[in-house]
Every structure is written in C-alpha cells, then in structure tokens.
Design brief:
By secondary structure, the protein is of the alpha/beta class. It has 15 helices and ten strands. Helix content is about 40%, strand content about 15%. Strand 6, helix 6 and strand 7 form a beta-alpha-beta unit. Helix 2 packs across helix 11, helix 5 packs across helix 14 and helix 11 crosses helix 15.
Length: about 350
C-alpha cells in the first residue's frame, strides 16, 4: 500500500510506552493512519466519531485522521488504492469487494443492524393495511444500491412484491426526503435517523419495518444483519497486526462507552454540526438506535451469511458460490479487544 511505509512503528513501538491521556496530541512516534468514511454524520458511524473525539485512538498510540469522501464508492476506492488504511463502511461493501477480487476484510463491527426504517405516509397512505398496498407507489430511498434500498426491497419481498412493483426515488438529501414525504411526492420511505424520528414525532409516518432494534431487525432478516464496520485489506491486517489491534481496541472502547452513554454524554462529545440545529431530535434518535450498535465489535456467527444472502438476492445472483464468505471478516482483533475491555 502507498501509505504503509510509515507504519513499521506500529509493531516496533515498545509495549511499555505510557498511554497518552485522552484528547492529548499523539506522540511524534505514533503511526499515522487514515480511516476513510463517506458520511460521518450518519448514526452508523457514531462509534468511529466517539473513538476519535474521546481520544481513544491516541490512547492506543495511534495518530488517526478520519478523512471524509463524497460517497461510499470513493471511500472504498481510497482503501483499495492505498490512500487510506481502513474504511468505515457497510459490511456488504466488503462482500462486494471480495466478488471483484479485492481481498477486503471487516475487522471490527460497529453496527449489528442497518438502523433503517421503512414507513408509509399517513397523508397519502392512510388506507395502508399490508405491504401489497404499496404496489405502484413511490418509495424514497437514500440512493440506489444503498443499504436503505436493499432493506426496502427485502421488506417488500415479504409481501410478495418485486422491485419493479414500486417506483423507487433516490433522495440523497435528508431535507429533500422529508419535504417530498410531507408534500406527497413519495408515499413511503426507507431511511436512517434522525430523518425517521423527525417524521415519527410529527405523526407523519406509520412504521412498517424497523431495523433499529434487534427484534425488529430479526423480523426482517431472521437474525443479525451486520452493517457498519471497519474494513481493511487482508494484506494490511496481516502485515500490521499491532496497528490493526490498536484501531480495534479504540473502537471497542467506544462501543462499550455507547452502551451506558446518556443524553448529556452525547451532547458533550458529539460535534455540534452533527445535531443539524436540533439537539433534542438527535438525542431522541440516538435513544431509538441504542440497540443497533455492536456491544463488542465481534461479528455474529450467522451475520455474514444473512448479509451475503441479501446481496445475492438483489444485487448479485449466484454470488455466494463465487467467493469465500469466511475471508470477508475476522474476529481475531475484536475478541482480544472484547476480553481487554470486558465488553
């Protein structure tokens, strides 16, 4: 990798070196790491934000830059090209990378559910009784090929509907999505928070499927659906195990912090711009999504197969025979971090 040249210190750093205090500047000898992300404001990336803001990467002896990219494809390309050491993205993108011959692995799980809700408009779908009532209707999603699009298709398939039975409308901008939902330009929506919580609080949305909770997620997928994760190339993970372990330790530390964090903790740690002008809405959405984050960073045993089946069902028919699912993730680092932090 182009950025690997500065990383030998990750293995050579003395184990007895004192850990820096949270929020303290990283020592000059700290390995420089770049983590790519496409939407840091998304709730699925909150553990990464917490690890960064509370200085957990620095405490592990790392100098980490979380670098924003315009979209998920460009963030992943940064990893593949060597412009980043790791990427915070969906586990399904790791599967897609493997199918393209890219040796990518998830090494710490952030979310055990996609945190996506499918709901119908109380304005245009007041007659809604079952999924078949959505036939011929307009469904807003964040974009085509996104987790929101996949979740919507999975939910619709439960009602016997095919992808072309509804009209999907790409709504990458949350404010545009809310406006379209309110003025009747779309009849249903598959989206993340805090957009969904805002529509819920206003009484404008009727829930159809909710993957923010473990139970709601299981109702849709039959088990855990691994979502956000930190992913790297298998070459990087094997060549720099200490840096990989340090990144994982910081993330699992953040995940443990999230298990007991209250509203006041969130307000103190999360950057003001994340609230988008409404702290109370952000906190309400946070409370709804609390179950969605992994408690320990470990990939659940049945999760990869459930995720791969969804990719095979909607994106890549027959794909499960074309790659090794076990090569798409490793729990080696997360299990060590779990034991260390008793997560």
């Amino acid at each position: 990798m182009a950025l690997s040249a500065g990383l030998p210190d990750a293995r050579a750093q003395p184990a007895s070196s004192p850990a820096p205090t949270p929020n303290a500047p990283a020592p000059r000898s700290a390995p420089k790491l770049v983590i790519a992300v496409d939407n840091r404001l998304d709730f699925s990336c909150l553990p990464l934000t917490i690890a960064d803001r509370l200085g957990y990467f620095t405490s592990e002896g790392l100098d980490v830059e979380v670098r924003d990219f315009p979209d998920a494809a460009q963030a992943l390309q940064a990893l593949v090209s060597g412009a980043a050491h790791a990427v915070s993205g969906t586990y399904s993108s790791t599967i897609a990378g493997q199918m393209r011959g890219q040796a990518l692995q998830s090494f710490v799980l952030q979310g055990r559910t996609p945190q996506i809700v499918v709901g119908v408009s109380t304005k245009t779908m007041g007659h809604y009784r079952e999924l078949r009532d959505l036939r011929g209707k307009r469904v807003g999603v964040q974009d085509f090929g996104t987790p929101a699009h996949r979740v919507a298709r999975a939910v619709l398939s439960r009602g016997g509907l095919k992808t072309n039975d509804v009209q999907f409308v790409a709504m990458p901008n949350a404010w545009a999505a809310i406006s379209a939902f309110r003025n009747g330009a779309i009849d249903a929506i598959s989206y993340t928070d805090p957009t969904i919580t805002q529509l819920e609080q206003a009484g404008e949305l009727r829930m159809v499927a909710d993957t923010r909770s473990v139970r709601g997620n299981a109702d849709v997928f039959g088990g855990p659906m691994p979502s956000a994760c930190l992913c790297a190339t298998s070459e990087f993970l094997s060549q720099f195990p200490r840096a990989s372990q340090s990144m994982t330790d910081a993330m699992v530390h953040a995940l443990k912090w999230l298990q007991t964090a209250g509203p006041s903790d969130i307000i103190k740690v999360v950057p003001e711009r994340f609230f988008q002008g409404d702290r109370s809405l952000y906190v309400a959405a946070f409370n709804r999504a609390r179950e969605a984050w992994s408690p320990d960073g470990v990939m659940p045993q049945e999760g990869p197969e459930i995720a791969a089946r969804l990719v095979a069902q909607f994106d890549e028919p027959g794909s499960m025979e074309r790659f090794n699912l076990l090569a798409t993730y490793t729990n080696v680092f997360a299990r060590k971090a779990k034991a260390r932090f008793r997560a």
